[in-house]
Predict the structure.
Amino acid sequence: MPLIKLDAIDSTNNFLKQLFKDSIVEDYTIVIANEQTNGKGQMGASWVSEKGKNLTMSILIKNIQLENQNIYDFNIAVALAVIKVLKNIQIHNVVIKWPNDIMADSKKVAGILIENILKADGSFTAIVGIGLNLNQTNFEDLPLASSLKNITGKTYEQEAIALLLKDSLKVTAVTLNECSDLLWQEYHENLFKKDYPCPFEDKMGNRFMGIIKKVTRDGKLELILEDDSAIHFEVKEIKMLH
């Protein structure tokens, strides 16, 4: 299992995607960068990280076959793989904030960006990008962010955490077809603010209260509004005011 360490790169996802395009790349190849000059988040948002302080990585997972399932099932499997690693290293109060953030003690410690390369037979290869705040302690401009070191006081090693994430992803990828219903149950058990009234803002700037009930199998957020109506939102149609 190759592990490629880079000092600086525009984006580990871009690097691994190009590598896969240009050459034969082994399954579960990992790319780690000390610095990303153009790190990407969901829907083109930027991911900013202090050089050398955190884990910015991408991992290649090849030939994923989903049997009568939605491709979003893979997204929730990845999120669960990440929180299982954090829980195993004694990070407490870890939850998943829809659509792609990992929270600990109600602050963001990680983000996930998955880019899929679809094949004619219905299978796909995934580039799974994970940004995890390890040892950065100053979040003056990001009051809703934190790191593992801020939570525990311990220092974490990039490569060791990357390998734990790889192993966890292998397990969830293998069990995806057999245990998708159980994975969805576990996902909802770990969904941030589920069943709690929360303020939201839509893309027009309108603010409203809603209760998160679930995420649908195609990745939409289902809210119950104040008039008891249920409504579904796509990624980036709303944001939680947190």
Notes: The chain has five helices and twelve strands.
